[in-house]
Amino acid sequence: MSRRRLALLAAAVVVGLAACGTTVPRSQRLQAAAGAGSAASDGSGASAAGGGLGDGAGLGPSSAGPLSAGQQAAGQQAAGLQAVTDQAAGSALLGPAAAGAGPAAPLLIGILVQAESSAGINSAAGISTTATTAWATFQQPFLDLVKVINANGGLDGHPLRTTVFQFNPDDADYATELQAACAQFTQDNHVAVVISADGFFADSFESCLNAAGVPDVTASQESITAAEEATWPGFSAPVALGSDQLETAVLTSLTANRWITPTSRIGVVYTNCPWDVDAYDNTVTPLVHQLHLDVVSDFSVDCADGYGSIASSAAALQAAVLRFKAAGVNLVLPISHQEAAGILLFAEAADAQDYDPRYAMSSAGEAAQQAVNLPKAVLANMEGAGWNPIWDTLATDVTAPTAKQCLAEFATAGDHPTAGLDVLQAYWACDTFGFYRAAIVAQGGVPTAARMPADREAIGDTLALAETIDNGADLARGRSGGAPRTAVFAYQAPCACFAYVTPPEAAPT
User: Fold this and answer.
1) pLDDT at 27 (0 to 100)
2) pLDDT in tens, 466-486
């Protein structure tokens, strides 16, 4: 069963839902009881089938040890780059190896991205997306950044090579695709880490990587619960919140802002994936009681298993709409790693039934993308707790040091993203590679999956990110998600846009 967050809402619609609801809210029941083919790519953006290796910036597989100034210059010339000399404070990407680190061997990086084929999904769901023009492919920002890193001395002195697997969101069987991805990364090529922005998660994929000792650093907006972190220690989502933290932020922040009140009649839509059931049972249910809220109905749906799930997804959510409308639900709370697609499909079905509940969402709901797909009257019923300014409001602050440095690094490769989602993809690359460099430096040596929790704890709040509110991170507790602060966002009629309406506050622990 696959459940990793999609990079863009256009592809995120494959929620794979099937009706399996209950008539009694889960909180009451508890109370009573108690992944297309693969491609390998080099840093120039060229790709080839069959799992070959690329060197990123003219550094062949035989390159070893730290790069000399001459090697750096040669790499820059081969890649058509200029050195980044004006490094803003907070950049975690460039620079020589840490003092005393010794020679740095090349690192092979596995890159897992969505293939550029989601036309079928878009057409089936009737989804529009905000236009992006800076990147020809989803892999391009990652490979271009590898060129820049190699041209400037490597990642903490390590020259980088890459092997790319492109995940096809139109495929009928995600699990098989992700099995092939893991085989490419751990058997055909022995990568040091997987950097992922494919938008899906599969428990079998994470188990495969962890068994091989390979960390997975993802650009996903939602991470996993504390219980899952014990099973998959190598999984890190530095710009995200864990499922349990996310639901706590949504309920506490929106209750404080009076979007949710004790008179709200809440309907919960959740997937029966173990991670979402865990968040419902062990976070949402006790918090609902603590806040004196009222869940009057819930509806359980199945995890995604392929492109063919779309039809059943729409049918399931139509059934959820009818149930919630009959039960008098006036606020919908999704608990799902497919939050954006779930909200979109539910809201469309509800609008068709002249049913207009409120929605409680998070950054994973991708409000900025909802704004190009839903009527203004529906958008006015949406409020959320978020930590990602681009997904929440489509706003890009390029004045922060880390964000400025990220875009400056891409400029040396000839990339000049300006639109919100183009900038976001640049940030994905900077933040995932920046986090991985911080993990290398944290305790010395190349991190393994088992070592990652300790690496995250050692990083603490020292990592600057481009993508989060205040451009910070908080990994001091060793949690897989590092977003440190959240703020409430809401739809604003005058600008027909989403905006933050409260100051940032510390994210739940």
Assistant:
1) 38
2) 999 989 899 987 789 989 999
Tokens 């062990």 sit on residue: 282
Q: Report residue 73 as tokens.
A: 């210059």
In tens, the pLDDT along 46-84 reads 333 333 344 443 332 322 333 344 443 444 344 444 444
Tokens of 241: 């919140």
The answer for residues whose C-beta is within 8 angstroms of residue 99's C-beta and 6 or more apart is none
Residue 119, pLDDT > 70, answer: no
Q: Is the alpha carbon torsion for 313, 315, 319, 324 positive or negative?
A: positive
- Average pLDDT (33-38) is 32
Average pLDDT on 346-363 reads 96
CA distances from 491 to 198, 390, 469 (A): 28, 14, 18
Kindly calculate the radius of gyration of the chain based on its CA atoms and give it in whole angstroms.
22
For residue 326, count CB atoms less than 10 angstroms from its CB and return exposed for 0-12, middle for 13-18, buried for 19 or more.
exposed
What pLDDT digit, counting tens, does each position of 323-350 carry? 999 999 999 999 988 899 889 999 999 9
Q: Which residues of 371-399 are buried (b: 16+ CB within 10 A; e: fewer)?
A: bebbeeebbbbbbbbbbbbbbbbbebeee
CA torsion sign, 484 to 485 to 491 to 493? negative
- What 3-state class would DSSP assign to 301? strand
Q: How far apart are CA 325 and CA 464, in angstroms?
A: 44
Nearest to 21 by CA among 272, 197, 227: 272
Percent of the chain with pLDDT over 70: 74
For Cα atoms 8, 252, 237, give the angle at the middle one, nearest 5 degrees.
35
The candidate with the shortest Cα–Cα distance to 16, out of 274, 325, 336, is 336
Q: Looking at residue 324, what is its pLDDT? A: 98
- Its pTM stands at 0.82
In the block, tokens 């949710």 appear at 260
* SS3 at position 99: coil
Estimate to the nearest angstrom the gap between the alpha carbon of 27 and the chain centroid. Answer: 29
Between residues 454 and 400, the one the model is more confident about: 454
- Let me know if 233 is exposed, middle or buried by CB neighbors in 10 A (0-12, 13-18, 19+): buried
Q: What is the average per-residue pLDDT within 214-220?
A: 94
Give me the half-sphere count of Cα atoms (radius 13 Å) on the Cβ side of residue 370.
Answer: 34
Q: Are 255 and 291 in contact (CB under 8 A)?
A: yes
How many Å apart are CA 173 and CA 2, to the nearest integer? 9
- DSSP reduced 3-state for 489: strand
**CB-CB contact of 473 with 484 (8 Å):** yes
